[in-house]
Every structure is written in C-alpha cells, then in structure tokens.
Amino acid sequence: MTTNKKPTGKAIITGASSGIGKALAVEMAKKGYQLGLVARRLDVLEQVKAEIIAQIPDAQTVEVATLDVAQDETIYPVLEQLSNTLGGVDIIIANAGVTAINRTGTDNFASDKHVIQVNLIGGMATVDAAAKIFRASGGGHIVGMSSVSAWTGIAGSSAYSSSKAGFSNYLKAVRAELSNKNIQVTTIHPGFINTDISTGMSKKPFVISAEKAAKEMLSAIQKKKDSVIVPSFPWSIITKIITVLPEKLVAKVQ
Ligand SMILES: NC(=O)c1ccc[n+]([C@@H]2O[C@H](COP(=O)([O-])OP(=O)(O)OC[C@H]3O[C@@H](n4cnc5c(N)ncnc54)[C@H](OP(=O)(O)O)[C@@H]3O)[C@@H](O)[C@H]2O)c1
What we know:
Elements: E1 9-14, H1 19-30, E2 33-39, H2 42-55, E3 62-66, H3 75-86, E4 91-94, H4 109-137, E5 140-145, H5 158-178, E6 183-190, E7 193-194, E8 208-209, H6 210-222, E9 227-230, H7 232-242, H8 247-253
Parallel strand pairs: 1-2, 1-4, 2-3, 4-5, 5-6, 6-9, 7-8
Helix pairs in contact: 1-6, 3-4, 4-5
Bound molecules: NADP nicotinamide-adenine-dinucleotide phosphate.
NADP nicotinamide-adenine-dinucleotide phosphate is lined by residues 14-21, 39-41, 44, 67-70, 95-98, 118, 145, 147, 190, 192-193, 195-197, 201.
C-alpha cells in the first residue's frame, strides 16, 4: 500500500500484533511512517495491517513478517530482509515481550527461562541486529521497551523484573557504545498499560490505554530522549521512592 504523501520515516516494530506494539504501529502510521511489523502470529499482523489501511487512508507502506524473538539467531536475517524491502530503516523498536507469574522453587523454572529468553536475550538480540543494520547504513534510532519493574525485584515476577532490569542496563551500555556512531538509543519504561500481556490489566492502579501510551511513547521517540517513563505520573515518583524504601516494606505492598 503506498500513497503520494511524503513518508515521515521508516520503522520496524517487534511484537506489533497486539497491545503497545500495535498501538505504536497505528500511531506511527497516522504520522506518516512506513512500517515493518513483526511478531509470531502472521495472521494477526495481516489483520493489524488491514485495520491500519481501513483507518488511515493516506497510510504509507505496511510490510509484515513472522519472527519469534526466542529464536534469536533468526532476528537479524528477518530485520535485514524487512529493512531491504522498505528500502532502509530509521527506527527499530524492540518491543516484543511476555510475562509470567511464578513462585521460586515450585517446579516451574521453564517459565522463568522463557521470560528471560524472550524479554532479555530476544531484546538484546534485536538491539544487536538493529545496531549492525545501523552501523552499515551510517545511523539510526534503536528503541527498547523495558518497564518500571526494572527498578525493583517484584515478588511473583522475579524473572520478568530481572529481564527488564537487565534490558535497561544493556540499553544504557549500548547507548554509550553507539553515541559516536550516529545511533540513538531510547529506553521506554511503561507503567501499567491496558493490554493482553496478563489478565486483569484493566484493573491495575494508574492504568492507561495502549493508545494513550503509544502517543506519549512516539513523542519521546521523536524527541530522541535517552529514557522515558510512560505515563510519567505517578511512576517517575514511585520509581524514585522504591529505591530508597526498606526492602521489607516494599515486599509488603507487592
Ligand atoms: N502492558 C504493560 O503494562 C507493560 C508494562 C511494562 C512493560 N511492558 C512491555 O511492553 C511490551 C509489549 O507488551 P504488551 O503489554 O503490549 O503485551 P501484549 O499485548 O501481550 O503484546 C506482546 C507482543 O509481543 C509479541 N511476542 C510475544 N512473544 C514473542 C516472541 N517470542 N517473538 C516475537 N514476538 C513475541 C506478541 O505477538 P505474538 O504473540 O504474535 O508473537 C505481541 O505482539 C513488552 O515488552 C512488555 O514487557 C508492558
């Protein structure tokens, strides 16, 4: 699908079949970006593409491809192929992620391992592939979807909060490594966003819609911020307080 309107830029989003990734795709299509959307479910991505075309008559190109970020060796070839199809890429958003509730020592380590494989290893491999693409092209912008849970270990979500703490630190180091290569790195830390990532998201405190979150996230991306918390209130305050409160007190409110 193409129009005569001048494109704003070209972006690839992982985990674009639902939630934040889908909402970002819609928001970026509205702003005139050409898009490459990836996730495991190709049929759902085709539906997202159809929704974008129906909603936004002057939307630019939308390409879709299947990618399982748990198969980390497949990430670079898929992203490179998609970049070639788009005729280059300016922004790569490492958004794909999963969560799981698990109590340590309850014969469910496979679940924790999967969370780390998708969120941390898959996220790092996506960023690594993006950096390789941008080193070759002379520059670009990498965006990593972390979480406010990066600030503390969360009971029942030990693997998830560890995956996000690891991903945030990785992105911070990569930002420093790539600062003289014309490659920007933005870390996004969402609070509670109403998506399908786990049941009962709509009832979480301070929850906002994926559409509202996507608007704030795209604004931060376009401003090329290093790091952003979405929504800022109350999470910017909570993330500051949580690091100075006694651990036993934090554990009580989890
Ligand atoms: N919602 C929140 O409150 C919240 C808060 C903090 C951080 N985040 C982060 O935001 C990101 C998006 O989450 P969401 O809330 O939008 O959840 P979501 O609606 O469940 O979307 C997750 C996306 O990731 C994709 N995905 C899952 N496993 C994948 C894999 N192995 N390979 C490729 N794609 C995979 C899913 O697509 P397929 O199933 O089609 O593969 C889907 O498109 C995640 O990194 C999450 O940790 C969310």
